[in-house]
Design goal:
The protein is mostly helical and about 240 residues long. It is about 65% helix and about 0% strand. Helix 5 runs antiparallel to helix 6 and helix 5 runs antiparallel to helix 8. The longest helix has 26 residues. It is globular, with a radius of gyration of 17 Å.
């Protein structure tokens, strides 16, 4: 029996992976050490693989990635945030990979069109989360400078995290349970890293987070132009 694919959910999850993959790819040639250059590239490739599968469930993966306008993307605003310094990238990765790992672990054990992808991807995302966690501990409990940068990044990105737990059509999840598990996990990591858990609001009328509705931050338009430039410049080209 064929299981109908919820297009809205496939686009949301696929866009998350695609956009964050591109952001991490921007570190190529700029990472602080060679080993981290390889690690970030591998995480980016994992996410790109997830994006290809998810977008192909919703339509033509190339057209969806390279020919949609900004308002048609359904990714979280969190994943589109600029890399900033290395601390900023690590906090963004900690917040998102913790959410993605919890979500995929649940989707992998449920019946539905996302179960096969989730069962494979949850193993990749476990590494992504562990990578971010180890760097959070290293930088948070490191020098005064690294600690201060991690504190700044944690506070700056906190307001984008509430969007992860808003309902998505076609995505069967217990949002409250998922959010509670996420808060517990992230709080534990930040505390062990001697970092302050931000106290700002994560949801409500005055917080960020309308990416699922196609409303994006200013930096996303510039990122999208760069990502789509080659395909739009040579439509129909193949090699």
């Amino acid at each position: 029996m064929t299981v109908a694919v919820p297009t809205t959910a496939a686009l949301a999850l696929g866009d998350d992976a695609l956009v964050l993959s591109h952001r991490l790819g921007e570190w190529a040639g700029h990472a602080p050490v060679l080993e981290e250059e390889v690690a970030l590239a591998n995480i980016a490739l994992d996410l790109l693989g997830q994006a290809r599968v998810l977008l192909s469930l919703a339509g033509d993966e190339d057209e969806l990635a390279y020919l949609r306008e900004e308002r048609a993307f359904r990714n979280l605003q969190l994943v589109e945030q600029p890399n900033g310094d290395f601390a900023h990238t690590i906090v963004r990765q900690l917040y998102f990979s913790t959410y993605q790992h919890l979500l995929y672990a649940r989707l992998a054990t449920a019946e539905g069109p996302f179960a096969p992808l989730a069962a494979k991807a949850v193993k990749e995302v476990a590494y992504h989360r562990d990578h971010a966690e180890q760097w959070t501990l290293r930088l948070g409990d490191g020098t005064d400078v690294s600690h201060e940068r991690m504190e700044r990044a944690g506070e700056a990105l906190w307001r984008f995290t509430g969007e992860m737990f808003r309902p998505v059509e076609g995505l069967d999840m217990d949002a409250q349970e998922l959010e509670a598990a996420w808060l517990e996990s992230v709080t534990s990591v930040l505390s062990r890293a001697t970092l302050t858990v931000p106290e700002g609001p994560r949801s409500g009328a005055w917080t960020a987070g309308a990416g699922r509705q196609g409303l994006h931050t200013e930096s996303f338009g510039r990122m999208l132009a760069e990502m789509q430039h080659l395909h739009r410049s040579h439509p129909g080209a193949s090699w």
